[in-house]
Specification:
With 636 residues, this protein is an all-alpha fold. 74% of the residues lie in helices and 0% in strands. It contains 31 helices and no strands. The longest helix is centred in the middle third of the chain and has 35 residues. The radius of gyration is 26 Å and the shape is globular.
Length: 636
């Protein structure tokens, strides 16, 4: 019990400090702090929590061995010392005193071991590779040659410099992201999870293929808040996957639908799985600009998934969900107060133009008050659950904090060694001055590096490694960063390491690999749309209003046409020729007019041809019904 209480105390203190910092309590008390002092404290609390809760074998069970207790005490001792005497260390850093070398070495070792325990060996070896590169980069052949760095200089830089461990990535995580996780935790403890699931069931359950549509809607709402596709699957999938299987979807289809719906929540505004805050920090843009940029691609993604599950239901004769379903009016009457915090959040962000962390606190306060005053299905926020939210939030943040801390090492090394410029040059040369080739290479790297990592963590890594090369090649910075976010996220459903698909397969008891490939089929739009908004940023709301309207309209039609082609069914089964024709004209319709320079003529023509084909299929089906002819042969 001592272990659990100690870990909860550290995790809860981390959340409490973040909240106090967001409210600027130190300033009100006349206490002047460097941001790095707070980050050092947060890093120390994070490391202590890791070594108390996770064993060397990555198990979360069993007694804490004596050496983990020692490490759990060393970590805060070192990092709290940095926080207390940070001004002194800042002055002494250029001279490299022995105590800084010793403390920096301890920090690097502890962060790397914590990374191995929480994120696994794949990311551990990636970061270790960059540390080795920092030491031998000057021996690497061009164009990846780096600057020679003294061995004793590296630990000091990584442990103390504001460009490394105590840098922007960790700062965003422990000052902004944590407050949105706090918001989500409060929502779940007040019954908000059940409310959104009930709302999805009430609005979608009575429709054709209603069980799958419940999954899509519920996971879209959950995913934006949870910050993790896997936890989203685990939360909503226990309800939606069995429901889909009972309705007539196969186990593979049910798992894939849940995986793809949960993964898409990672870029669903307004929270976008917490990656949006990091993107705003890296690009030095208002957070609201990032939200607006993510809106159309997210809607196209879910539109494609929704259309495909509907077509599967029509093709396989899957009816509405068979379970007793709640009514919309009843659900809203009992849980309308869960909608208010999101209205508060959006109003604070867009109308009051407040900082994201303050808007999150406004929304969290609204949830706390509403949850305390109004129970949902008997669940009311009590004082015990409210305090538990602090340590639950801190524990939920541990893995992300460690990943972004390690990503800070990578960012620092790239800055110190000049490796960032060398990598950018290498990728551009590899692309051979062909933007399409560079984008394909970048997409592959994003999926590869993203395997096994949470979306927010992989975004930080990719923002340092891949985004600069796209920007250097002429891609709009916002488009480049949204591009890497999307493809980093798609590692969640792309075999061989498709964590969201694997989690869903565990619930559906089907093959993880088959589930992953089915999810790729359903999520095809996420593999296509990023290339389109790089070619023409109108799909991320950059450009003239008229161009945006035309491109969004034709892209929507194009997505529908390709979805029909992928499933091979409209009003009746489609032959290969019609599927190919719809696929081609659908892709043409999706192509932004500004990318082709033809004022939308090609996209509009593709849309018109595709809709004409669908119209023919619709009327052929109706004629077949009137003549009692099998619909798959009518009109042949």
């Amino acid at each position: 019990m001592l272990t659990l209480y100690s870990a909860r105390a550290c995790a809860g203190a981390m959340t409490l400090f973040s909240l106090l910092l967001a409210l600027q309590i130190p300033s009100y008390l006349g206490i002047a702090l460097y941001k790095e002092q707070f980050l050092a404290v947060a890093a120390g609390l994070t490391l202590t929590t890791v070594f108390l809760l996770t064993r060397a074998g990555r198990s979360k069970d069993g007694r804490v061995p004596w050496y983990d207790w020692i490490i759990a005490l060393i970590a805060p001792a070192v990092l709290f010392s940095i926080a207390i005497w940070y001004a002194y260390f800042l002055r002494e850093q250029p001279f490299g005193p022995p105590e800084m070398l010793a403390m920096g070495s301890v920090i690097v070792i502890l962060v790397m071991e914590a990374l191995r325990r929480t994120a696994g060996l794949f990311l551990f070896f990636i970061v270790l590779g960059f540390i080795v590169y920092a030491m031998v980069g000057h021996l690497v052949p061009a164009p990846l040659t780096g600057r020679s760095i003294a061995i004793e200089e590296l630990p000091i830089y990584l442990g103390f410099d504001p460009s490394a461990l105590l840098g922007a990535a960790l700062s965003v995580s422990v000052t902004i992201v944590i407050l949105f996780i706090f918001l989500g935790q409060l929502l779940f403890k007040t019954g908000g999870g059940e409310f959104f699931t009930d709302l999805a069931m009430a609005t979608m359950g009575r429709r054709r293929g209603g069980a799958a549509k419940i999954s899509v809607v519920a996971s879209a709402m959950f995913g934006s808040i949870s910050g993790s596709a896997v936890s989203n699957v685990a939360t909503t999938g226990v309800i939606t996957i069995p429901l889909m299987q009972r309705s007539g979807y196969s186990g593979v289809q049910a798992g894939a639908i849940e995986a793809i719906a949960s993964t898409g929540g990672q870029f669903m505004p307004p929270i976008m799985g917490a990656a949006a805050f990091l993107m705003a920090e890296f690009l030095e843009l208002p957070y609201t600009d990032v939200i607006v940029a993510g809106l159309i691609p997210a809607l196209l993604y879910y539109f494609a998934v929704f259309v495909q599950v509907d077509l599967v239901a029509a093709r396989d004769d899957i009816t509405a969900a068979a379970e007793s379903l709640p009514k919309v009016r009843t659900v809203l009457k009992e849980g309308w107060h869960f909608i208010v915090p999101f209205a508060v959040l959006i109003f604070a962000l867009f109308e009051l133009n407040t900082e994201p962390e303050i808007a999150a606190l406004y929304a969290a306060a609204t949830i706390a008050v509403g949850g305390a005053l109004r129970p949902y299905k008997g669940k009311r926020l009590r004082l015990r659950e409210f305090f538990a939210t602090f340590w639950d939030t801190g524990i939920a943040m541990v893995e992300l904090n460690i990943i972004v801390a390690a990503a800070g090492f990578v960012i620092g090394i790239l800055n110190l060694s000049g490796g960032g410029f060398a990598l950018t040059l290498f990728l551009i040369e590899l692309g051979g001055e062909q933007l399409a080739v560079l984008l394909l290479i970048a997409a592959g790297i994003c999926i590869l590096l993203g395997m096994g990592m949470p979306t927010t963590g992989v975004y930080v890594l990719l923002a340092a490694l891949v985004a600069p090369s796209l920007v250097e090649a002429g891609v709009l910075p916002l488009a480049a960063h949204v591009f890497i976010l999307y493809f980093g996220m798609m590692s969640m459903i792309t075999p061989p390491i498709a964590l969201a698909a694997f989690a869903a397969a565990t619930l559906s008891r089907e093959s993880p690999t088959r589930t992953g490939f089915m999810a790729m089929k359903l999520g095809w739009v996420a593999y296509v749309v990023p290339f389109l908004f790089v070619l023409s940023p109108t799909l991320i709301m950059q450009g003239e209003a008229e161009q945006i309207a035309i491109n969004v309209a034709t892209a929507t039609v194009g997505v529908y046409l390709v979805a029909v082609a992928v499933e091979g069914y409209f009003a009746r089964p489609l032959d290969v020729a019609r599927r190919l024709a719809l696929g081609v004209v659908g892709l043409v319709a999706m192509m932004p007019d500004t990318a082709l320079g033809l004022e939308g003529a090609v996209a509009i023509a593709g849309s018109a041809i595709g809709l004409t084909i669908l119209g023919h299929e619709h009327f052929a089906f109706r004629r077949a019904r009137l003549r009692n002819v099998p619909p798959d042969v009518a009109g042949e």
